[in-house]
UniProtKB/TrEMBL annotation:
Positions of the Carboxymuconolactone decarboxylase-like domain: 46-127
SUPFAM superfamilies from the UniProt entry: AhpD-like (SSF69118)
Pfam annotation, one family: CMD
Stated name of the protein: Alkyl hydroperoxide reductase AhpD
Organism superkingdom: Bacteria
Gene3D superfamilies recorded: AhpD-like
UniProt cross-references to PANTHER family, sorted A to Z: CARBOXYMUCONOLACTONE DECARBOXYLASE-LIKE DOMAIN-CONTAINING PROTEIN, SI:CH211-175M2.5
Organism in which the protein naturally occurs: Deinococcus aerophilus
Amino acid sequence: MNQISWLAVPTPDTAPEGVRKLWSKAEANLGFVPNVFRAQALNGEQFLAWWNYFNLLVNREGHLSNAERELMAVVVSGLNRCVYCAVSHGAALRGYSADPQQADTVAVNWRHARLSAREEALCALAEKLTLRPAEMTQSDLSPLREAGLHDPQILEAVQVIGMFNMTNRISSALGFIPNAEYHAQAREG
């Protein structure tokens, strides 16, 4: 296996039992174990805590659609130039949107993508909160409300954006490499 992190990566023999169970579940559901699961498993308890919150925000039924959460993930990851997350969540966005061109465009510059007013409002929030968080004001929520988002949806959007900013920094700081499988996912459509 090629290097997937600049730190040591546990093997199935050295990873904690809870981590191995998650790896097995990922293998069964995805057909591979995401490299981020392997790389962060060095601190197994911390990884599992991160995964539980990440999974709650991104993969479970929530106030926003899966496509909307992945859209924000791709915007944040593109702005932060996080290769791992832009590639892996670009694959997820392609799958949810069934529009590979839109997902690839969003990763580079969301303003050039064909988006609804609601999607544009979410992307604008993701951009400002990522690049200029200290400049956030109450008026930044107005476009979201005008696009039909309610307070629980806005809170979830902010939490997802915050999660991806944190995850981007971890992945970039430690040189996480995306799985090859992500590059080909959901390309037909």
